[in-house]
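Sharing a chain and its predicted structure for anyone who wants a worked example. Both blocks are below, sequence first, tokens second.
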Amino acid sequence: MADTVELLKAKIQEREDHLRESWVKAMEARLVQEELVKCHRYEGVNHLENCRWLVDKYIQMLQENRVKGYKKIEV
């Protein structure tokens, strides 16, 4: 009985850690988006050339840094 309680607590803690890391990555993508908006406003007409590296980084982060949750709880 005590082993199953410890295993359940460990599994829940692992899920919370995973969700926390997932949210941190999502917030990093939001920061890159804000920098991209600033770059577009600052560069004006030349934003396609000068902000391209931010666009590439943002697209990569959108593909990789999705918030992944759990659909069911295993008890």
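Comments welcome. The CA atoms of residues 43 and 49 lie 9 Å apart.
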